[in-house]
Amino acid sequence: MLKVEDLCIKVHDRKTTDTLVKDVDFEMNKGDIMGIVGESGSGKTMTALAIAGLLSRHDMEKSGHIIFEGINLLDIKRNVLRKIQGNEIAMVFQQPLNSLNPLKKVGWQVEESLRVHTSMDKSEMKERAIEALRDVELSNPEAVYNSYPHELSGGMRQRAMIAAAMIIQPKLLICDEPTTALDVTIQAQIVELLKRINKERSTAILFISHDLSLVNTLCERVVVMQNGLVAESGICDDIFNNPQNDYTKRLIASIPRSPF
Predict the structure, then answer these.
(1) pLDDT tens digits, one per residue of 68-88
(2) Whole-angstrom Cα distance, residue 38 to residue 252?
(3) What is the DSSP letter of 69?
(4) Residue 13 binned pLDDT confidence (cut-offs 50, 70, 90)
(5) pLDDT score recorded for residue 258
(6) Which element (helix H / strand E) includes 22?
(7) I want to staple 94 with a disulfide (CB 3.0 to 4.6 A). Which of 3, 133, 177, 241 is the partner?
(8) Global pTM value
């Protein structure tokens, strides 16, 4: 379904050129759950944004291939890419309060993909949005639909963002640090929600995180990135139990251990 080949991302700043991502390769099939881990600046989020088509086409130089369903996303016209964004590839970001418009009610924002990609009327969109909010286990979806973002808790906002991303049932859901701002209990609930979405809808999930424990809990395979490069990749159990790369070994060794 997704094949990333020799992906390079460079930023030109006057006389200097910084390479943010270099020669990244990995593949995903339908229904896969893959994690990308690494420290800040490792290139994991840049890779995710490139797949989602959310990097500037003017300020950055991108090369290689991002093949999604047989289409190279780096070469297609902008209007074709827009048909894929939100419809077949959707993204959930780290800070839902920053991603949500504070002046618009949550329901209106959950409906956005429906306005762009369907011809539904207002009543149909509202019904679908409330159904999507219910599907992410929000206990009172009608009230959430009519609320502003600041009226919801962090966990409720993140669920609403997942509802907005999943409302048209994309084939690939990219989650960029979706649990970082949440407490441990809510983190676990969001991970279980993503597992259920994957199981029930066969949605492929690309999970970006610096939290190796979460990645090991959720994902089947993992890509470890360092300084824009893939340091190591493979099945999670193999990587976590028998890492080969020194950087991966240090990352795993840094995972907090329970004293009990």
Answers:
(1) 999 999 999 988 898 898 789
(2) 11
(3) T
(4) confident
(5) 45
(6) strand 16-28
(7) 177
(8) 0.92
